[in-house]
Amino acid sequence: MSRKLIVGITQGDGNGIGYEVIIKALADERILDMFTPVIYGSSKIFGFYRKQIHNIEQINTNVVTSARDIHPKRVNIVNCLPENVFVEPGQPTSESAKSAMTALKAAVDDIKAGVIDVLVTAPINKRAMVNEGFGYTGHTEYLEKEFGVDEVAMIMVSDRLKVGVVTGHIPLKDVRESITTEKILRKLRLMKASLQRDFGVDEPKIAVLGLNPHCGDGGLLGDEEQQIILPAVQQAVEEGILAFGPYSPDGFFGLGNYSKYDAVLAMYHDQGLTPFKALAFEDGVNFTAGLPVVRTSPDHGTAYEMAGRDLADPHSMMASIYTAIDVFNNRRRYDELQAGKMTVQMPDTEIKPRGGRIIE
Prior knowledge:
By secondary structure, the chain is of the alpha/beta class.
């Protein structure tokens, strides 16, 4: 039997719903048979929000200053914030932003050192953190830099739908100039590799969306589909990637065509995340593909308007934890299989996807 994984969970913005969804997600003591949770933040803030939540029995916690001292049968809290940390539910503050940064750095340091196995990040306030010198527009960009990788992909994950994006946290006005054939290709390569290694899909089929309304209507509403996206799809097919499209997003999601594919690649943030959250918000997970470690996050934000009111739904946090564990185990199995494979020359099999044409 494999050992229990150690799941590191950052508190996020302490004035949002992070602690509430964490506490609710870890409330059932039976989960301690599955994994060992380690929360990076403050036992003081944990205790404050614990008192605001009803219908939860006693949670056995273990407060430590280092994740090396955790208890395998307790909800562990790594006190990495000052003792006098102050909580203002519903208010984005300088202190809450700095605390989120501190907790995130502590968790990243530990996963780099192998102290924890996977990383789950609670929601942050991006603007507040940038104002405090964070220097990144989100977790994804920060982790890309911290782990020194050339390319990552934000993939929204649920049981029924997986959506990646070519461009992430950038203004809409900058999207067009950021989209290139090579960038789309890099995302498709990364998504294929992640779907195989992280999610156990042998030959993933990936649908690619257009950029303009009706995929440009033959050039009437824009030529990015013909000049940029279609060549990327065609080259991906030549490389053995089962890429299809580009598809007009409204009809693609409206007709439920996403169910025919293992994943969807959208051109920009809201093009992909809006339909994803409409279809799978409750159990949606933000997964960062391309990192050497496993990182997930709930698909919602800080929700200040709910903070401290016992209204937060923990299902996305729960899904984030379970997805992180599943991906970790999938990677381990995949790597073991790859290492154990004998080199056998197999006859070539030609695969002809339906990529290479614009579908409005």
